[in-house]
Design a protein that fits this description.
217 residues; alpha+beta; Double Stranded RNA Binding Domain; 6-stranded antiparallel β-sheet; two-stranded antiparallel ribbon; 5 helices; 8 strands
Protein backbone atom coordinates (compact mmCIF):
# COMPACT_ATOMS: atom_id res chain seq x y z
CA UNK A 1 0.00 0.00 0.00
CA UNK A 2 2.85 2.34 0.89
CA UNK A 3 4.60 1.64 -2.43
CA UNK A 4 1.38 2.24 -4.35
CA UNK A 5 0.73 5.53 -2.55
CA UNK A 6 4.32 6.62 -3.09
CA UNK A 7 4.09 5.80 -6.78
CA UNK A 8 0.86 7.76 -7.10
CA UNK A 9 2.41 10.71 -5.30
CA UNK A 10 5.47 10.66 -7.55
CA UNK A 11 3.26 10.41 -10.61
CA UNK A 12 1.25 13.41 -9.50
CA UNK A 13 4.39 15.34 -8.71
CA UNK A 14 6.01 14.57 -12.07
CA UNK A 15 3.03 14.79 -14.42
CA UNK A 16 0.70 17.19 -12.64
CA UNK A 17 2.97 20.03 -11.59
CA UNK A 18 0.68 22.66 -13.09
CA UNK A 19 -2.27 21.42 -11.07
CA UNK A 20 -0.14 21.12 -7.93
CA UNK A 21 0.72 24.79 -7.75
CA UNK A 22 -0.51 26.56 -4.58
CA UNK A 23 -4.06 27.65 -5.30
CA UNK A 24 -7.49 28.32 -3.81
CA UNK A 25 -10.56 27.08 -5.67
CA UNK A 26 -14.10 28.10 -4.70
CA UNK A 27 -17.27 26.56 -6.12
CA UNK A 28 -20.89 27.39 -5.30
CA UNK A 29 -24.06 25.37 -5.70
CA UNK A 30 -27.76 25.68 -4.88
CA UNK A 31 -31.07 23.86 -4.93
CA UNK A 32 -34.60 25.09 -4.30
CA UNK A 33 -37.26 22.64 -3.13
CA UNK A 34 -40.99 23.21 -3.16
CA UNK A 35 -42.77 21.43 -0.30
CA UNK A 36 -46.53 20.91 -0.13
CA UNK A 37 -49.06 20.98 1.48
CA UNK A 38 -49.22 24.04 3.70
CA UNK A 39 -51.00 21.94 6.33
CA UNK A 40 -47.81 20.11 7.35
CA UNK A 41 -47.10 20.17 11.06
CA UNK A 42 -44.79 23.19 11.06
CA UNK A 43 -42.74 22.23 14.12
CA UNK A 44 -42.18 18.67 12.93
CA UNK A 45 -41.25 19.91 9.47
CA UNK A 46 -38.71 22.47 10.69
CA UNK A 47 -37.19 20.04 13.18
CA UNK A 48 -36.77 17.35 10.53
CA UNK A 49 -35.06 19.80 8.16
CA UNK A 50 -32.76 21.09 10.91
CA UNK A 51 -31.80 17.59 11.99
CA UNK A 52 -30.88 16.71 8.40
CA UNK A 53 -28.53 19.69 8.13
CA UNK A 54 -26.76 19.57 11.47
CA UNK A 55 -25.50 15.99 11.09
CA UNK A 56 -22.74 17.23 8.75
CA UNK A 57 -21.92 20.53 10.47
CA UNK A 58 -18.97 21.58 12.63
CA UNK A 59 -20.68 24.88 13.51
CA UNK A 60 -24.37 25.67 13.38
CA UNK A 61 -26.34 28.91 13.56
CA UNK A 62 -30.13 28.77 13.58
CA UNK A 63 -32.66 31.59 13.54
CA UNK A 64 -36.42 30.98 13.73
CA UNK A 65 -38.97 33.73 13.17
CA UNK A 66 -42.73 33.90 13.75
CA UNK A 67 -44.91 33.22 10.68
CA UNK A 68 -46.04 36.33 8.78
CA UNK A 69 -49.52 37.64 9.49
CA UNK A 70 -50.47 37.00 5.86
CA UNK A 71 -48.76 34.40 3.74
CA UNK A 72 -47.68 35.50 0.24
CA UNK A 73 -49.18 33.85 -2.82
CA UNK A 74 -45.70 33.03 -4.11
CA UNK A 75 -42.55 32.38 -2.06
CA UNK A 76 -39.46 34.53 -2.15
CA UNK A 77 -35.99 33.35 -3.18
CA UNK A 78 -32.54 33.62 -1.66
CA UNK A 79 -30.30 36.41 -2.91
CA UNK A 80 -26.52 36.75 -2.94
CA UNK A 81 -25.28 40.03 -1.50
CA UNK A 82 -21.81 41.52 -1.12
CA UNK A 83 -21.41 42.55 2.55
CA UNK A 84 -18.47 44.79 1.62
CA UNK A 85 -20.10 46.57 -1.31
CA UNK A 86 -19.06 50.21 -1.74
CA UNK A 87 -16.42 49.94 0.99
CA UNK A 88 -12.63 50.09 1.14
CA UNK A 89 -12.59 46.42 2.12
CA UNK A 90 -14.66 45.59 -0.96
CA UNK A 91 -12.24 47.49 -3.19
CA UNK A 92 -9.29 45.67 -1.62
CA UNK A 93 -10.91 42.27 -2.13
CA UNK A 94 -11.77 43.13 -5.72
CA UNK A 95 -8.14 44.10 -6.40
CA UNK A 96 -7.15 40.63 -5.20
CA UNK A 97 -9.74 38.94 -7.44
CA UNK A 98 -11.82 37.90 -4.44
CA UNK A 99 -15.58 38.03 -4.80
CA UNK A 100 -17.34 37.53 -1.48
CA UNK A 101 -21.11 37.16 -1.65
CA UNK A 102 -23.33 35.73 1.06
CA UNK A 103 -26.86 34.33 0.71
CA UNK A 104 -29.73 36.09 2.45
CA UNK A 105 -33.47 35.34 2.63
CA UNK A 106 -36.20 37.87 3.36
CA UNK A 107 -39.20 36.85 5.46
CA UNK A 108 -37.82 33.37 6.15
CA UNK A 109 -39.48 31.18 8.74
CA UNK A 110 -36.11 29.60 9.57
CA UNK A 111 -32.54 30.19 8.45
CA UNK A 112 -29.66 27.83 9.10
CA UNK A 113 -26.01 28.47 8.34
CA UNK A 114 -23.29 25.92 8.96
CA UNK A 115 -19.59 25.36 8.48
CA UNK A 116 -17.84 22.05 8.09
CA UNK A 117 -14.13 22.28 8.86
CA UNK A 118 -13.52 18.58 9.53
CA UNK A 119 -11.35 18.40 6.39
CA UNK A 120 -9.50 21.66 7.05
CA UNK A 121 -6.20 19.80 7.40
CA UNK A 122 -6.55 18.93 3.71
CA UNK A 123 -7.39 22.49 2.74
CA UNK A 124 -11.14 21.91 2.37
CA UNK A 125 -14.04 23.83 3.91
CA UNK A 126 -17.78 23.83 3.25
CA UNK A 127 -20.35 26.49 4.14
CA UNK A 128 -24.04 25.62 3.95
CA UNK A 129 -26.97 28.04 4.04
CA UNK A 130 -30.64 27.04 4.19
CA UNK A 131 -33.82 29.04 4.55
CA UNK A 132 -37.46 27.99 4.76
CA UNK A 133 -39.89 30.40 3.08
CA UNK A 134 -43.62 29.92 3.75
CA UNK A 135 -46.33 30.75 1.25
CA UNK A 136 -50.03 30.00 0.86
CA UNK A 137 -49.65 26.58 -0.75
CA UNK A 138 -46.66 25.31 1.21
CA UNK A 139 -42.98 26.10 1.68
CA UNK A 140 -39.82 26.63 -0.28
CA UNK A 141 -36.50 25.34 1.03
CA UNK A 142 -33.62 27.31 -0.49
CA UNK A 143 -30.15 25.82 -0.04
CA UNK A 144 -26.88 27.48 -1.05
CA UNK A 145 -23.49 25.92 -0.40
CA UNK A 146 -19.90 26.93 -1.06
CA UNK A 147 -16.91 24.60 -1.21
CA UNK A 148 -13.36 25.91 -0.83
CA UNK A 149 -10.36 23.76 -1.68
CA UNK A 150 -6.87 25.09 -1.06
CA UNK A 151 -3.79 23.37 -2.43
CA UNK A 152 -0.43 23.80 -0.73
CA UNK A 153 1.43 22.67 -3.83
CA UNK A 154 4.32 20.22 -3.86
CA UNK A 155 4.53 19.83 -0.12
CA UNK A 156 3.99 16.53 1.74
CA UNK A 157 0.55 17.77 2.84
CA UNK A 158 -0.36 18.93 -0.66
CA UNK A 159 0.74 15.68 -2.30
CA UNK A 160 -1.07 13.60 0.31
CA UNK A 161 -4.30 15.55 -0.24
CA UNK A 162 -3.96 15.25 -4.03
CA UNK A 163 -3.48 11.48 -3.80
CA UNK A 164 -6.58 11.16 -1.61
CA UNK A 165 -8.69 13.22 -4.01
CA UNK A 166 -7.52 11.15 -6.98
CA UNK A 167 -8.70 7.98 -5.21
CA UNK A 168 -11.98 8.93 -3.53
CA UNK A 169 -12.71 12.55 -4.47
CA UNK A 170 -12.97 15.45 -2.07
CA UNK A 171 -15.51 16.40 0.59
CA UNK A 172 -17.58 18.47 -1.89
CA UNK A 173 -19.41 15.24 -2.72
CA UNK A 174 -21.18 15.45 0.64
CA UNK A 175 -22.94 18.69 -0.36
CA UNK A 176 -25.45 17.02 -2.74
CA UNK A 177 -25.86 14.20 -0.22
CA UNK A 178 -26.84 16.71 2.47
CA UNK A 179 -29.23 18.39 0.05
CA UNK A 180 -30.85 15.03 -0.59
CA UNK A 181 -31.04 14.38 3.16
CA UNK A 182 -33.01 17.62 3.54
CA UNK A 183 -35.41 16.49 0.84
CA UNK A 184 -35.84 13.09 2.53
CA UNK A 185 -36.46 14.81 5.87
CA UNK A 186 -39.28 16.93 4.40
CA UNK A 187 -40.81 13.83 2.84
CA UNK A 188 -40.58 11.93 6.14
CA UNK A 189 -43.12 14.28 7.74
CA UNK A 190 -45.59 14.03 4.83
CA UNK A 191 -44.25 16.64 2.44
CA UNK A 192 -44.49 16.28 -1.32
CA UNK A 193 -41.18 17.68 -2.58
CA UNK A 194 -40.28 18.85 -6.08
CA UNK A 195 -37.17 20.62 -7.39
CA UNK A 196 -37.85 24.18 -8.53
CA UNK A 197 -34.31 25.00 -9.63
CA UNK A 198 -30.79 23.79 -8.98
CA UNK A 199 -27.15 23.92 -9.99
CA UNK A 200 -24.87 21.06 -8.93
CA UNK A 201 -21.32 21.21 -10.39
CA UNK A 202 -20.25 18.05 -12.17
CA UNK A 203 -17.07 17.78 -10.09
CA UNK A 204 -19.09 17.46 -6.86
CA UNK A 205 -18.73 13.72 -7.02
CA UNK A 206 -16.36 10.97 -5.95
CA UNK A 207 -16.48 7.52 -4.43
CA UNK A 208 -19.99 8.17 -3.09
CA UNK A 209 -23.07 8.39 -5.27
CA UNK A 210 -24.46 11.87 -5.91
CA UNK A 211 -28.08 11.39 -4.91
CA UNK A 212 -29.32 14.97 -5.30
CA UNK A 213 -32.07 15.29 -7.88
CA UNK A 214 -31.37 17.90 -10.53
CA UNK A 215 -33.97 20.14 -12.09
CA UNK A 216 -35.50 18.77 -15.23
CA UNK A 217 -34.86 15.12 -14.35
Amino acid sequence: MYKMTTALALGLALTGCASMKPSVHTESTFVIYDVKPATLDRNQFLKAVLDAVQTSASKLRVNREIPPAELPATPGRFELQDPFANSKMGALLASQAQNIRVPVCKNALMTVSTENTSMAQYGEQTTFFLCVLPYKDGYHIDIHATFVRASSGLTPQGISAAVGRSLIGDSSQFIPRTMNNVRAAAESVGGKVTVVDSYIPEDFKGAFVNQAERAGK
